[in-house]
Amino acid sequence: MDRIEELAIFVAIVDTGSLAGAAKRLRHSPPAVTRALAAVERRLGARLVERTTRRLGTTQAGRRFAERARALLNEYSDAVSEINREKGAPLRGLLRITAPTVFGRRHVAPLVTSFLDAHPGVRMELVMGERNLDLIDEGLDLAIRIGQLADSRLMARRVGEIRRTLIASPAYLRKRPEPRSPRDLVNHDIVFYSGFGSPTELRFQARGRRQSIRLTPRIMVTDVDAMLSMVGAGRGIGRAFSYQVATDLASGKLVRLLPAFEPPALPVQVVVPSSRLMAPAVRAFMDHAIKSLNSLSVIH
After folding, report:
1. Residue ranges making up the domain that contains 208
2. Whole-number Å distance between alpha carbons of 257 and 184
3. Which of the listed residues 86, 118, 133 is the one where a domain comes to its end?
4. How does pLDDT run across 186-226, given as a tens digit for each residue?
5. Is the pTM of this model over 0.85?
6. Handedness of CA 182, 183, 187, 192 (dihedral sign)
7. What does residue 29 show for φ and ψ, rounded to 5 degrees?
8. Residue 35 CB neighbour total at 10 angstroms
9. Strand 266-273, strand 219-221: pairing
10. Other CB atoms within 10 Å distance of the CB of residue 48
């Protein structure tokens, strides 16, 4: 095992907090991870981690070394990627990425197919769902995330933002008066997508002040497309992400309601594990995703 790989294993141990976690993340056997850590500690002549029966902690020397190791790994990855681009080396390997279901279906799946067309030696797995998977624990290379990040171990590039928008059909508004404030919603039929949280409450913000309105939805649904279909058919008022309804709003099929009361915008971000030795194919897809999403009008 070369020394660059040993550094990558050590940083993975620090990030995951365990030898088993590092083995899972890097797809190595647990004995190989143990041997790599022992080799690094032997070479440095210092204890880098403290092991107990219940947990693993990093020593002061280990924390200092991990910081330098991360910088070295990132510089090495950048250098390898630059040389590969210069010599036109074909990209190879398996990339595992994750994205929210609807955003992934509409905007990430096309990125995957175009990237595969350009790089025949690459294979990809696209994991879609509403739960934010742990990139390190799940062995994922990259994520498209909507919202703020809670994990400081991740590196993110913001590519746009989206809003949570109230919408209704013109047919519905011909039958019911258009709401002028959030409080007016109590007199309307609500088609609620439960992915936004509690079905009895919608949150708004105006002039820096937050406001919550408790409601009794007429319809509750767990699928975004079903909710949009019902709203489009005039069954009531719904709330969706702005990218999900941009086309229908532009065509007049749907009407945007109470824009002055919308909650703060949510960032759309391309996310990778910050300390991971990034493979050339991962870096190339990250660049491809950032460029493509930056040009996507529905998130700008």
Report:
1. 164-261
2. 11
3. 86
4. 999 999 998 755 567 889 998 889 999 999 999 999 899 99
5. no
6. positive
7. -75, 150
8. 15
9. unpaired
10. 21
